[in-house]
Amino acid sequence: MAERSGARRVVVTGMGVVSALGPDLPSFWDALSGGRHGFAPIRAVDCSTLRSRVCAEARGFEPAAHFEPRELDFLDRFAQFAVAAAREAVRDAGLHGAALAELAGRTAVVTGSCVGGLASQEQGYVRLFVEDRRPHPLTIPRTMANAGASHISMSMGLTGPAFTTSSACSSANHALGTALMMLRSGMADLAIAGGSEAPFTLGNLKAWDVMRVVATDACRPFSKNRRGMLLGEGGAMLVLEPLEAARARGARIYAELAGFGMSADAHHLTQPSGEGASRAMRLALQDSGLAAEQIGYVNAHGTGTPANDAVETASIRAALGAHAERVAVSSTKSMHGHGLGAAGAFEAVATVMALHTGTLPPTAGYQEPDPECDLDVIPNHARAARIEAALSNSFAFGGLNAVLAFRKDAG
Amino acid sequence: VIAESVVGAIAKVKRIPEDRITLESTFAELEIDSLDGVEIVCELEERFDIAIPDDVARNMTSVGQVVDSLRPLVGGGGAASGPAGGDG
């Protein structure tokens, strides 16, 4: 196997998740491996005027269990998700006070977010345009897309590089891929990377509604009767560190983040070209030194829109060649919803857990085979399979593609 | 009246009980930083329907000093409370 000469290998040693499937990693994986989705009628806003009234809300997340009331004044919901997930990830990695403090200046924080503190911004607009008042004085720092990264760094005292990537549905994969490059280069010795999103405001849901890409009933990726995506909220963060550092401290290694590929379609604002997606997958393989035949699972972008799933099927074939007929593919968006800026992070966790546990999460809600989506999509029920490596796809509106490659054994 | 409103605004913004705040309390003692200060100024502007100038807003150091600096800004009510020996 081709190894990257000289570059450090990077492994995942901790994960944290807040999602509609539960407030932590165990509840997330329990639902995914059980094929259970988190969709329910929307509670966050009055949805009586919406076409689509179903989404994946993180109902089990109790802000008061994580933050003091005065802290919450400064935290939009998307930043709360980021901090809560990061804290769980750091605990999960076994990085307690002193160990983390020692690495504080060498720790990178890279968070993905598509829309930032949308609820705070919208509340400001309601005050201004409806109530004839001024926006709240904390509207700007609550809304800024980097608030997640900033609050993680402040709450943990981390003083290394910290910033936010924003590329719509690929935001978190760009964050994780950027963290990988920083760790390989030696620019950082530890990274907390992922994404978070809290997109459930009336204004945003109405905007999704009129785009007609959101389903009105259920999310059925790769199924012939699929009608669109369903949105999800939450956050997921991964602790990444060089392999040798993880071994030296005796950390549990979930999997290796082995490669990253990105591309732009340069094609259309919302329609995927397919060529860009397959190129990003091939680049991730090339970067990881993995052959297509070593990939046992692809966590698809799999939004459940008519356009994405058919084009993604073709692009997986184009990237993996004949091996595409043998690879298992699923869309976990069918359970945690489309998390937008958090999506890639949810799916990185799902992919890492698939490698770590030998259980491939299914595509839930699947009903009817579609000749245009005829790969093995793991319909409805998880599958036991010892796999060597996996890809996790994210393809954003605007044609921005980012694919992560993970490998089971770091040996 | 002004003092009560200042104490009320600080208590609301900082989420602390009003009885922790006296006219002698300094902003440092109450751990009020510049961002808290902006919220408090906004709250006071809305309570009194006044515009607090930037130089006043940026130089708040204690509860008593804020009360004093608001007195000339608050219309009839504030001015009248002085001679009447009100509760300001």
What is the element layout, followed by pairings?
The complex is a heterodimer of chains A (411) and B (88).
Chain A: E1 10-19, H1 25-34, E2 40-41, E3 54-55, H2 63-66, H3 69-73, H4 77-92, H5 97-103, E4 107-112, H6 118-130, H7 139-143, H8 147-156, E5 162-165, H9 171-185, E6 190-197, H10 202-211, E7 234-242, H11 243-248, E8 255-264, H12 275-288, E9 295-299, H13 306-320, E10 328-330, H14 333-336, H15 343-357, E11 359-360, E12 383-384, E13 389-396, E14 400-407
Chain B: H1 2-14, H2 34-48, H3 54-57, H4 63-70, H5 76-81
Helix pairs in contact in B: 1-2, 1-4
Compute the CA-based radius of gyration of chain B: 12 Å
- How many helices of chain A? 15
Q: What number is the mean pLDDT of chain A?
A: 96
Question: Overall 3D geometry of chain B?
Answer: globular
Task: Give the amount of beta strand of chain A, in percent.
Answer: 15-25%
How many H/I helices of chain B? Answer: 5
Number of strands of chain B: 0
Report the biggest beta sheet of chain A as strand number plus sense, adding barrel if it closes. 10 strands, mixed
The overall strand count of chain A is 14
Strand percentage of chain B: under 5%
Helix content of chain A: 25-40%
Helix content of chain B: 40-55%
Please report the distance between the alpha carbons of the first and last residues of chain A. Answer: 12 Å
- State the distance separating the first and last CA atoms of chain B: 5 Å
Find the structural class of chain B using helix and strand composition.
Answer: mainly alpha
Average pLDDT across residues of chain B? 87
Oligomer: heterodimer
The 3D shape of chain A can be described as: globular
Radius of gyration of chain A: 20 Å
Describe this structure in words.
Chain A has 411 residues and is an alpha/beta fold. Chain A has helices at residues 25-34, 63-66, 69-73, 77-92, 97-103, 118-130, 139-143, 147-156, 171-185, 202-211, 243-248, 275-288, 306-320, 333-336, 343-357, and strands at 10-19, 40-41, 54-55, 107-112, 162-165, 190-197, 234-242, 255-264, 295-299, 328-330, 359-360, 383-384, 389-396, 400-407. Chain A contains 15 helices and 14 strands. In chain A, strands 5-4-6-7-1-8-14-13-9-10 form a ten-stranded mixed sheet, sandwiched between helices. In chain A, strands 2-3 form a two-stranded antiparallel ribbon. In chain A, strands 11-12 form a two-stranded antiparallel sheet. The mean pLDDT of chain A is 96. In chain B, 26% of the residues are buried. With 88 residues, chain B is an all-alpha fold. Chain B is globular, with a radius of gyration of 12 Å. In chain B, helix 1 packs across helix 2. Chain B is built from five helices and no strands. The chains are: A alpha/beta (411), B mainly alpha (88). Chains A and B meet through helix 3 of A and helix 2 of B.
